[in-house]
Design brief:
Layout: E1 6-9, H1 17-27, E2 31-36, H2 43-48, E3 51-54, H3 60-74, E4 80-83, H4 98-126, E5 129-133, H5 146-166, E6 172-176
Parallel strand pairs: 1-2, 1-4, 2-3, 4-5, 5-6
Helix pairs in contact: 3-4, 4-5
Length: 190
């Protein structure tokens, strides 16, 4: 539909923040492209109307392929990129596993930048918006989620830097800090 705002949301598996955002954007009339590591995890969205694209944010080839597929679907510009994909951890900091810690930071910080890089040209073409989903825990301690909230806090500065770096191109970059989303029927307005 001409003039329809297009939003791409990463990490839309059922029951999470991305799922809720995809539902709400669709309800409000946006053209929604929902992504997840596995298309099986977002079939419920496809049945409702949003388009779906497989995107594993830890895999550079998957990111590249998704960017190509999205450009084929919508053309050279993307209005809103919502970097929502992430992983958590509920364990005491003294009991964390180094390998898992690295994965948390890779998914919650490094992958956000990789996905942003893949879609920057389309966002610049639209002169629109990037939203990096963090957590309210990025600004207050949450016991037994120390690594998760540390990774979300670590996302705040790159988000602020991107805001400054992309402003001359007319692009807005915002952090979002939602509370926990643990119910499948919880759909909140973006």
């Amino acid at each position: 539909m001409a003039g329809q705002t297009t939003v791409l949301v990463t990490g839309c598996s059922a029951g999470g923040v991305g799922d809720a955002l995809a539902h709400e954007y669709h309800r409000q009339g946006f053209r929604v492209i929902a992504t997840a590591m596995s298309l099986d995890k977002i079939q419920h969205l496809k049945a409702m109307g949003p388009e779906t694209v497989q995107l594993d944010v830890e895999d550079q080839f998957s990111i590249r392929d998704a960017a190509v597929q999205v450009q084929r679907l919508i053309g050279p510009s993307l209005d809103i990129l919502v970097n929502n994909a992430g992983i958590g951890s509920s364990v005491s900091l003294v009991d964390t596993d180094v390998e898992h810690n690295n994965k948390i930071f890779n998914v919650n910080v490094v992958a956000v930048l990789a996905v942003t890089q893949a879609f920057t040209k389309q966002i610049v073409a639209a002169k629109e918006t990037i939203v990096n989903v963090g957590s309210v825990g990025s600004i207050c301690p949450v016991p037994f989620q120390g690594l998760y909230v540390a990774s979300k806090a670590a996302l705040l500065h790159p988000t602020a830097c991107l805001r400054i770096e992309l402003a001359p191109f007319g692009v807005k970059v915002w952090p979002a800090r939602p509370l926990d989303c643990s119910r499948q029927d919880l759909y909140v307005s973006p």
